[in-house]
């Protein structure tokens, strides 16, 4: 069972290779929230998302023999880049199964970082089965994108850094909002946050159409959502919570919030105009939850995680030209 | 004569109202530079540029009687927002003379921050004369945009923070590149940087068509450039260096670099794709200088200041869709 010591050790590994991000504030966001908002900008992280944290934590703990055989992963894009970058840093061969409709920026960056890309059709192929078959052929290790303790511990360093920086700034948050797909980031970060700030309220945030964690919270059992939904949040299109991640989230989360695609688009516009950040749809859900009052922020200190910034320019420009 | 104590005192004033920014690194930029690059992101500053530092430093030192009469400034946009925001923080009435072709985002934000805007035609009116006349009528204090010791001391806190954070990170830079219009940011920062890192090489960076500081360096006398030039860098369209700023820059700068509009546009694209930052043209000149090899960065530690991020979406989208 994963615990805070695993996350603290992951933090030491990541510190050794400068994989931390700052904690920021923005007066315009504070004005809208009518409270204080702390921003953890993982869009500024190496590869433009938090995913390198878990990938590096896992890859750096492989044995020499495992490193020699390389690793295989499947991902819609951010985990792909994280695995490829960690492989490049540790000199490990990486192969990543990616849907052919993944954002171009994510495919290009994964290739540039040295990852071998195996494409598949999101609506026909089974990426997990493809990855498992390749790993078996090559005797290579699999690097799951969320439901693995070393991955969760790596992503949990986001929460650990957030808690420690906020405490050092004298601004311990009352509540934290964390984007949630499979739950690796939210579960690891929740564990770390609770270890440092026992009274904090932690919320996962999901796109309305991919609210599998919200539905699972309601029933107490992991729920799978139907196959016929879509969302602008390509990074959060996970049909079902992970087994390990859901167990941790059940223990530590206060609840799950959902946001619409329109709210996400407005948050991306806000980030361009006021935060001066490039944020991808999946990375913007916690910001959207604050902007659209999904919970009370007035008079409180609220922390949000911006989980990634890998968005194609065409979509970015289209979103910016819409009227609020 | 301004000295390091003035900048240290300005830093204390700014710390009291949370006007500092972090010092960041980016692996993709390091790769292009073939060295280490430290990024001082003043686009993340309140109002989206460093200008609030000087404005707050000056406004917070006014007497009560001066505060009651309000202040008047002239600016193409970033100083306007800085003065308006500092006025809002200190409850001082602000009036700003702005060209009618200033970026819409800068005009809108200045108004939103409570600044009264007086428009004029950039090609016909004399903004300085208009501002002086208004100030005379109202017995209001003028807030010059660069050639004033309190303004220079405020902008110098950028260099002071940069030096202190870099030293704390164990990464004292070999060289620093600072965007230069009238020279307030470069002169104040140069003074601060030299006080902490005596061997550092400091370069100002200008747009090719507004290379008044470069030309003044060549002749040893302040040179005025002709009226018929243009540049995408609206924030750096100053025809002549300031008297005080040029004197300090002559003492402390190693040299002046210039970049073309095309290089600036490419830097804005790089910032979108790899830094996940929104950067305005004038804010991107130091980044452009590194990307286009205006000085040797291989094997060195180079710090750059990104001075602002206030760009209209139309121009941003147009720049992004161009091919590199």
Question: What does this protein look like?
Answer:
The structure is a homodimer of 324-residue chains. With 324 residues, chain A is of the alpha/beta class. Chain A has two domains: 4-49 and 149-321, 3-Layer(aba) Sandwich (Rossmann fold), CATH 3.40.50.1100; 52-143, Rossmann fold (3-Layer(aba) Sandwich). Chain A has 14 helices and ten strands. In chain A, the strands form two sheets. Chain A has a six-stranded mixed sheet with strand order 1-2-10-7-8-9, with helices on both faces. The first copy, chain A, has helices spanning 4-15, 27-33, 51-59, 64-69, 78-90, 104-112, 127-138, 149-168, 184-196, 212-219, 243-252, 261-275, 285-291, 313-320; strands spanning 24-25, 36-41, 71-74, 94-99, 116-120, 141-142, 175-179, 201-207, 255-259, 301-306. Chain A is globular and about 55 Å long. Chain A is 46% helix and 15% strand. The interface between A and B is medium-sized, with 26 and 26 residues.
């Amino acid at each position: 069972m994963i615990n805070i010591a695993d996350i603290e050790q992951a933090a030491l590994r990541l510190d050794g290779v400068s994989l931390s991000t700052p904690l920021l504030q923005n007066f315009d966001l504070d004005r809208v929230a009518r409270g204080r908002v702390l921003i953890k900008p993982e869009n500024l992280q190496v590869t433009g998302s938090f995913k390198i944290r878990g990938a590096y934590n896992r890859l750096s703990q492989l044995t020499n023999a495992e490193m020699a055989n390389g690793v295989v992963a499947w991902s819609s894009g951010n985990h792909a880049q994280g695995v490829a970058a960690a492989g490049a840093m540790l000199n490990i061969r990486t192969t990543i199964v990616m849907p052919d409709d993944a954002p171009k920026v994510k495919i290009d960056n994964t290739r540039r970082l040295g990852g071998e890309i195996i494409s598949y059709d999101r609506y026909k192929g089974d990426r997990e089965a493809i990855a498992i078959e390749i790993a078996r052929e090559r005797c290579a290790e699999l690097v799951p994108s969320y439901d693995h303790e070393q991955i969760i511990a790596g992503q949990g360093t986001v929460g650990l850094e957030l808690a420690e920086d906020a405490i050092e700034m004298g601004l311990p948050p009352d509540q934290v909002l964390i984007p949630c797909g499979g739950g690796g980031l939210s579960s690891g970060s929740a564990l770390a946050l609770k270890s440092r700030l026992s009274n904090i309220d932690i919320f996962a945030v999901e796109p309305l159409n991919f609210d599998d964690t919200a539905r699972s919270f309601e029933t107490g059992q992991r729920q799978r959502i139907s196959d016929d939904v879509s969302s602008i949040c390509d990074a959060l299109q996970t049909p079902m919570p992970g087994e390990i991640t859901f167990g941790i989230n059940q223990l530590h989360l206060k609840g799950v919030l959902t946001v619409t695609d329109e709210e996400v688009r407005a948050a991306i516009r806000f980030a361009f105009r006021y935060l001066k950040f490039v944020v991808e749809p999946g990375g913007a859900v916690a910001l959207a939850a604050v902007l659209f009052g999904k919970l009370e922020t007035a008079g409180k200190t609220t922390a949000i995680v911006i989980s990634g910034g890998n968005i194609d320019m065409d979509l970015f420009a289209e979103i910016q030209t819409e009227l609020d």
